Amino acid sequence: MAEAVLELVLHNLSSLIHKEIAIFLNFEQDFKSLASLLTTIKATLEDAEEKQFTNRAIKDWLLKLKDAAHVLDDILDECATEALELEHGGFNCGPSHKDKGEIGRNS
């Protein structure tokens, strides 16, 4: 019986590890693609900044783009904060603190 339970635990752990590795590898590929795309965007923006003085449509586009960049920056800050909280909080696969409190009150 203990052997069957251990086998199940090892199978589940192995599956979890494989999923985590796949997520990491996909993230690495996505990161490389994003870095390449950002290089292209930077070159386009540099060109647009030069042309904004003679083209009002480009100037308006740049203003809207800057607003969008600020929104994106806020989102990235939130993601970084959540990542730090997860990193410092550790891996928790048990009941949440709220659940523990509720269990204690009902007992």
UniProtKB/TrEMBL annotation:
GO terms for molecular function: nucleotide binding. The keyword Nucleotide-binding applies. InterPro entries: Rx_N. It comes from the Eukaryota. Signal peptide: none annotated. The keyword Nucleotide-binding applies. One of its GO terms (biological process) is defense response. Keywords: Nucleotide-binding, Plant defense, Repeat. Transmembrane segments: none annotated. Pfam families: Rx_N. Residues 5-87 form the Disease resistance N-terminal domain. This is Disease resistance protein rga3-like. The lineage of its organism: Eukaryota, Viridiplantae, Streptophyta, Embryophyta, Tracheophyta.
